[in-house]
Amino acid sequence: MRIAVLPGDGIGREVVPVAVDVLKAVLPGAEYVHVDVGHERFLREGVAMSEEDFENVKKCDCILFGAITTPPKKCYRSVILTLRRELDMYANVRPFKSCLVSPYRVDFTIYRENCEDLYCGMEEVSEDMVLSTRKITRHASERIARMACRRPGLKKLTIVHKANVLRSCELFRDVCIEVAKELSVPYEEMLVDAMAYNLIRDPSRFDTIVTTNLFGDILSDEAAALIGGLGLSPSANIGDRYALFEPVHGSAPDIAGKGIANPIAAVLSAKMLLEWAGRGKEAEMVQRAVDRTLADGVLTPDLGGAYKTSDVRRSLLKYLEAP
Predict the structure, then answer these.
(1) Residue 98: per-residue pLDDT
(2) In the annotation, is 217 catalytic?
(3) Annotated catalytic residue within 111, 119, 187, 242
(4) Catalytic residue check, 128
(5) Annotated domain spans of the chain
(6) What are the CA-CA distances from residue 8 to residues 20, 46, 146 (Å)?
(7) What is the model's pLDDT at position 137?
(8) pLDDT tens sequence across 33-87
(9) Alpha-carbon distance 165 to 123, whole Å?
(10) Active site residue 119
């Protein structure tokens, strides 16, 4: 297996090496192709990701990604949005599950459509007004709904939308319902504002959530707070050919270089990579190492601890190397 490794910017350069070390411990035969992309490279060379970089990534089986700083510059093209769009990784899958540091009982997964909505970049800009076009298609809505409906162990699908106001959401909702009925999946539908409320009030009621790009982006950050923070939240970007795995958190420039970034989200993203590759046994090993590390109280400052990134790495590898 060839894995493209793109640490990116900020703390991505600190947490991804930990995830790579974890993968090497359980998947020693894999080949790792390191590619330098991101805003830091853009500042040095005027390009965030070259065509050669992109071609090298395409030659790999999957991608382990860190974090990217995306400045509000017209000349800057977001690396992660480019990869998602160009490699047609249309499903953003974000699992949330309670652990020892979680204040709530949580075990659900958000399936977020990954290539459309307001993130398409279709905007008309004038001095006094900006018009942003929201793109929702039947094709994209159907394929994210099908992936959500095929989640292993699915109990009930929650379709999140704002169809009472937006015709685009009406299309998304109707298509998701059609797919759920076709596949005999139990479902409910919920307005996004009610979803935000219920996610806090009773998160244990949810199992599998499917929604549009913007709503999924916001709700998944809210969900991260339920399990202890962004430092524990992994994700996958999945298409029919390519897959990219990344922590939900950003580049966190305020703590970059201090050695205190939480690598657990990146490590759990590597676990999702193993699951995607059919390496269930190795994925379980990684989860056990994470659980034991948290149980030992080896926590970085974002979780109320005083340990460093290197301490978490040491603990994870200790449990992975133990018989």
Answers:
(1) 87
(2) yes
(3) 119
(4) no
(5) 1-89+238-323, 103-227
(6) 14, 15, 31
(7) 97
(8) 999 999 999 989 989 999 999 999 999 999 999 999 888 766 777 888 889 989 9
(9) 21
(10) yes
